Amino acid sequence: MDPNQPPQQVQYQQQQVVSPQPAVTYVVNNQNTFGTTPCNFTCANCGYQGQTYTSTEIGAFALLLALVLFVLGFWCCCWIPLILDGCKDTSHSCPQCKRVVGTKTVM
Ligand SMILES: [Zn+2]
After folding, report:
1. Extents of the domains making up the chain
2. Alpha helix stretches (DSSP H) within 13-76
3. How far is the CA of 22 from the centre of ligand 1 (A)?
4. What's the pTM value of the predicted model, to 2 decimals?
5. Between 61 and which of 23, 67, 81, 106 could a Cys-Cys bridge form, CB atoms 3.0 to 4.6 Å apart?
6. Separation of 83 CA from ligand 1 center, angstroms?
7. Rounded distance between C-alpha atoms, residue 22 and residue 47, angstroms
């Protein structure tokens, strides 16, 4: 009862797959992450880290509201949605390279 087991020589094949480091993927900020106030972000264009520069612009909601007021006969005040910040879209851009990184729409 002598187990005569020859030593098994296992040859390991070492495979070193040198995979290149994946490129840094930037989180694409969609409209939901941007609000009406400046928020922290990392610019994918110039690498700036900080708060976004926000500016308001007349969006579809303001135009639609103005049109509705105009149709309803409120000609004297149909322009009000066009100047109210609450009815405007907020555009977030990089203060360093001026690239627009996101837009917060009212609707
Ligand atoms: Zn930038």
Report:
1. 27-104
2. 60-71
3. 22
4. 0.62
5. 106
6. 28
7. 17
